[in-house]
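Example record

One chain of 371 residues, shown exactly as stored in the release files.
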Amino acid sequence: MLGAVNPPVFENSLFTFATAEELGEAIRNEDERYVYWRGTNPTVDLAQRKLAALERGERAKCFGSGMGAISATISSIVSAGDHVLVLGAVYGPTTQFLRYLEKFGVTHTHVDDLAGCDSAIRDSTRLLYFESPSYMAYAVVDIAEVTGWARERGLVTVMDNTWSTPLFQKPLTMGVDLVVHSLSKYIGGHSDLVGGVVIGPSRLVRPLALKEYQLYGAAMSPHDAAKVIKGLRTLPVRMAAHQERGLAVAAFLQDHPAVRAVNHPGLPSHPGHAIAVRQMAGFSSLFSLVLDTESREEVGAFLDKLRHFRIGVSWGGFESLVNAPALSTEESVRATMGIPVGLVRLSVGLEPADVLIKDLGLALEGVGRLA
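Predicted structure tokens for this chain:
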């Protein structure tokens, strides 16, 4: 428009029509027509089309938060009496939401692998939900194998692909029915927006957009949509840098005597590395390490010693962040996910790797058996 390099931001909350008939027709198709901000908006619509194309999906719907996308997506699939299989560790609030659904008669079971799925599946099972790499542990799921198993049993599959971004992994091409993302992480990339998206075939996304999206009210603002569009423009450059720095830091940590384990799928020592290389085009910089300690106090002291890794709950931005579930996650959720006390999550930002490695090395002095 007018030669503008950046798309305009449509701030208006509503759109008017020449006739009542036109308004009625637009309301019946509010997932595609501009009626009211709570439905859709030209700026948000542009972000949705870009995200759908990048993920190789037919349609995308953006939300005001990642949990807005996740809760609406799950709700669009299940009804009272249905059962959900959760494969591997998933985002803590997702587990909390599934527990919340129990009051409406929706049950769920956490399993570790497909053998567990075989044992836990019921006649009422409707949905298989998973992440790959998984939450906090960063275990790798063979996506094609899992979706094939689910398809044979008539289950809908939903996968959280936030860790990889659509650049490094495209689950829809491997049989996943719906993909969700927190746009607050790598796609936004600058820790200045909160948003989410669900992407998939029109037959699943359109009903969700007309019902759950509208009723839950987690609408994305046009300003946040503009930030998503801007983040997508630099995503390939940023992800290449995140990958390089993340692998360098992970390689340093895996050889450190105060570290029991490093959970990074990009390391050849990772149990799922071969599968990851097969189904992913690259690796982000979010991973975890397990300190050689069982003390929550010692974990907290390690975080406090860090100077370049800031203590924070999110990730995927330009700044490096650190968090420890034992200090911040509900105990029952942590137990369900099998997360040890000494697990620490690192989000490696865009600072020089040698600076971050030195920071970690100094903070690790005195941890566990080095004390």
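Notes: The domain at 20-231 is CATH 3.40.640.10 (Aspartate Aminotransferase; domain 2).
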